[in-house]
Amino acid sequence: MIEAELHHKIEKCEDVLTSSVFGLLKHKFATGLLKDFLGRARLYFNEKYDEKKLFENEILKNKLFDKEYKFIFWKRYEKYGEPDIIISGSDFVVLIEVKDDAKESSQNQLADYYTLLEENYATKKNMYLIYLTKDLYQPEISDDITKLKGKNFYWLSWYDICHALKNTDEKKNEALYEIAEYLKEYLRECRDIFLFDGFGEYKEVKKEKPLFWRGETIIFSEYNKIGLSKPIFWGGENA
């Protein structure tokens, strides 16, 4: 699917992104990369940022993904619909709801998915719900998610995978490094998901609506995903 999308042979959609990325991360050779990516998820109801509330701590404390586990994609549940991903281990379960655009989940979907876990995976010692979106910052959710307070409900950004891919060490695992580079190319070229590495590689362009108050030339190119609604400079000076 990655090659098909890179060559514009298939339509971009949420399910293709899910399949392209997690279709690789589901394999045992990519467990370290999977743990690095998911470990960056933050507990949603965490008013003050606390590293102790990262999913990484749950992975370490409960030794998640250390034993056998399996991925379940788009399984249909009569009462709750079709979760994107369920990762089921011997004593844990992780449900991942994936979003690639600005659309929110349907009404109460997230709360319903946690109920799904409680009803269908009651024997699991640890259960988690991760909301994966393309936001740069934790999004506000209009669903009624009050029942998720005190639960293992996490938010994760697609941009977090860029950090995980960057951490892949070629010397330790050359094959995994090649896969990481392949994923980086796919995410950058097809999904505009990448880390900003400086201005050097960008050509000078003119923007109709500049990010500068006086309309100076800028070099953001296609870096419009930042989503700035106001000028970052005022009268030519730092705001």
Number of separate structural domains? 2
% residues in beta strands: 15-25%
Question: Biggest sheet: strands, sense, closure?
Answer: 6 strands, mixed
Number of strands: 8
Structural class call reads alpha/beta
**N to C succession of SSEs:** HHHEHEEEHEEHHEE
Q: What Rg do the Cα atoms give?
A: 20 Å
Strand order of the largest sheet: 1-6-5-4-3-2
What is the number of helical segments per DSSP (H or I, 4+ residues)? 7
Rounded to the nearest angstrom, the distance between the terminal CA atoms is: 44 Å
Shape: globular
Give me the oligomer status.
Answer: single chain
Helical content class: 25-40%
Average of per-residue pLDDT values: 84
Poorly predicted parts: 199-207, 212-226, 228-239
Overview in brief:
The protein is of the alpha/beta class. It has 7 helices and 8 strands, in the order αααβαβββαββααββ.
